[in-house]
Fold this sequence. Notes:
Blueprint: E1 2-3, H1 14-30, E2 34-41, E3 44-50, H2 57-75, H3 77-83, H4 104-112
Antiparallel strand pairs: 1-3, 2-3
Helix pairs in contact: 1-2
Amino acid sequence: MxxxxxxxxxxxxxxxxxxxxxxxxxxxxxxxxxxxxxxGEADHVHLLVHYPPKVAISRLVGSLKGVSARxxxxxxxxxxxxxxxxxxxxxxxxxxxxxxxxxxxxIKEYIENQKRPG
Length: 118
């Protein structure tokens, strides 16, 4: 999955990406799914999630984005406000692709190699 912040603004620092990953791991655990890999850049995040067929991807995405937006705004209010205004953190859209046929190691390597801001 790929999520972008509203207006593709770049609010993510290494610290915020690390906290975002922690939040998203907790949400995945609540859904009985596994966040296999997480990485991002200043203006987007990549997630590799292993989830069972009983989980509706739209509900998982809604929770991942909703919980992370609320917590990141609470924990980093000054920084986030510089980049995003109004009530929205994430863009309403997202990219999700199934990789059932591809080896997870290849997808994981791709996500690991995404550049973090620095």
